[in-house]
Design goal:
Length: 220
C-alpha cells in the first residue's frame, strides 16, 4: 500500500524512496549517504554524472494515482514546493493535490545502464564513489508531482531527451507521439523532486564496478 511520510515515500511495490534533501537530488547525483541517529537518512550530494551522458538513458514509468486525502498534509508537503503542469510549474500544496487529482511520476535509469555509464564514461564520479567507500551512493530515480494532463503526455511520449547545466539542473523533454504535438520540458530544479531512489556498489573489480544494488530508505 502506498504511504507518504516526511522521511520516505512507500510505492505500491513496497520500496521506500528517500525524501530528506530531495531539493538537492536528481538522477545522476552522487555523494555520501548520511545516516543521522535521530533523523532520516539522505544523500549529501557532492557531484553529478555529466548530463549529456544520461541522454537516451532515462526512462519514464506510468503515472501513479494517489489518494492524497488520506495522507497527512505536513508529510505530503515536506521538501516539495512545486508541481509540473503543461507549460511550467505551480505551487504545490496538499489541498491542490487533492483538488486537482495530481499524479506522481517516476523517472529512472536502469541498474545495468547506470553501471555501464559509470564504468565507461563517468570516471570522475566512479572514482569519487570508490574513494567514498561503503557510504557512496548515486541517485537512480526521482519521483515528481504532475498534473494529470502533463503526466499523460509524458506517459505517451515518443521519446525523452535529456539536457542540463550545473546552473539549471537536469531537464527532460518529451516529444509528442501523434496523439499530441510539440514537446513538453520539465527541469528538476530545487523543490520539484518529491522522492528519490539510490544505488550503491556491491562489488568492485579493481577500479571498475562489478555489481550494483538498490538501497532503500528502510535499509542502512
Amino acid at each position: 500500500m502506498i504511504e507518504i511520510k516526511d522521511s520516505y515515500f512507500k510505492a505500491s511495490d513496497g520500496n521506500r524512496y528517500f525524501r530528506r534533501n530531495a531539493p538537492a537530488v536528481e538522477v545522476g547525483a552522487n555523494g555520501e549517504k548520511k545516516a543521522p541517529l535521530t533523523e532520516a537518512n539522505y544523500l549529501a550530494v557532492d557531484g553529478h554524472i555529466k548530463y549529456d551522458l544520461l541522454n537516451g538513458k532515462i526512462k519514464k514509468q506510468a503515472p501513479v494515482e494517489i489518494d492524497w486525502s488520506r495522507e497527512n498534509k505536513s508529510d505530503v508537503e515536506a521538501y516539495v514546493d512545486h508541481y509540473f503542469l503543461i507549460g511550467g510549474t505551480a505551487k504545490f500544496t496538499h489541498e491542490k493535490a487533492v483538488e486537482d487529482h495530481l499524479k506522481l511520476m517516476r523517472f529512472n535509469i536502469e541498474q545495468s545502464t547506470l553501471q555501464q555509464v559509470l564504468n565507461n564514461d563517468a570516471a570522475q564520479v566512479r572514482t569519487s564513489m570508490k574513494n567514498e567507500g561503503n557510504d557512496a551512493r548515486v541517485c537512480s530515480s526521482t519521483w515528481v508531482v504532475m498534473s494529470g494532463d502533463l503526466a499523460e503526455r509524458f506517459n505517451t511520449s515518443a521519446g525523452l531527451e535529456v539536457s542540463g547545466t550545473s546552473t539549471t539542473g537536469l531537464s527532460v523533454t518529451a516529444k509528442g507521439d501523434g496523439s499530441w504535438t510539440g514537446s513538453e520540458k520539465i527541469t528538476f530544479s530545487p523543490g520539484t523532486v518529491f522522492a528519490y531512489g539510490l544505488h550503491k556498489v556491491k562489488k568492485w573489480d579493481g577500479d571498475k564496478i562489478k555489481e550494483m544494488e538498490d538501497d532503500w530508505q528502510s535499509l542502512n
